C-alpha cells in the first residue's frame, strides 16, 4: 500500500500580540517536489517551517500530512510520521565522528538504545546503513572525521545525513547554504539534487541562483502572506516578485 505523504496547510496563521508573522497560508507540497520558500527578510519563512515541524503552535489554521490533521501532533511524532528538519550539529553530537553520529541517529530511529542486548548484534546492520547513507551524501571519505573539525559545507551535509537517518518523506531545510563559502554551497546543492525522489524537499534559500537551479516549485512569501506560487519560469516572469526584490535591493 502506498501511503500519501502530501503536506498541506489550511488557513495557517501565527501572531504574537498584534504582530502577524504568518497569515492565511494555504499551500500543498507535492510528494517528490523540490519546493523553495523565498521572500524578503522577515517575510515569515522560518515561522512557517516552525509551524510545520510543530516547534511553534499556530494561532489559526491547520496542517495536514497525507490527509491526517497533525496540527497538534508533538514534534517527535511528526518525525516518526515522516517529516523532519535539520538541526545544527554543534548542538547535537559534538566530538563524535561522522560515522558515530549517523550510527547513533539510526540506532535512535530503530529504538536500539532501549534494547541494549540487541545493540551489539545489530551493530553491523547499523554501520552498513550509516555507510550507505554517507555514500549517497558523498561523505564516505569523511566517515572517521570528527564532525566539528570539518569544513562548514561538509558539516551541513552531516546535519542532512542525521535528518535523513530518520527516513523522512519530507525534509525541511532552513537556509542550508547560509554561512558557507559559495563553492561549498554549490557542492551541497549538487548532493541534495541527487537525493531520492521519494523524499520531498522544502527549503528556504536566499541565494536565487541556487533556488532557480534546484527548485521545481517556488512559493513567495511577503509580509507573512503568500504572494504567489509557481514553477521557476513563472516566478521569474512575475512582475510582482521582481518588484518585491527590486524594492528590497533599493532599501538594502
Ligand atoms: N518569537 C517571536 N516573537 C515575536 N516576533 C517574532 C518571533 N519569532 C519571529 N518573530 C518575527 O516574525 C517575523 C518573521 O520572522 P521569520 O524569522 O519567520 O522571517 P523569515 O522570512 O524567516 O526571515 P529571514 O529571511 O530574515 O530569516 C519577524 O519580523 C520576526 O521578528
Automatic annotation (TrEMBL):
Lyase among keywords: no
Protein name: ATP-binding cassette domain-containing protein
Keywords of this entry: ATP-binding, Cell membrane, Membrane, Nucleotide-binding, Transport
Regions crossing the membrane: none
Domain ABC transporter: 7-248
InterPro entries in the cross-refs: AAA+_ATPase, ABC_AA/LPS_Transport, ABC_transporter-like_ATP-bd, BCA_ABC_TP_C, P-loop_NTPase
Domain of life: Bacteria
Entry GO terms, CC: plasma membrane
GO MF term (any one): ATP binding
Any Pfam family matching the protein: ABC_tran
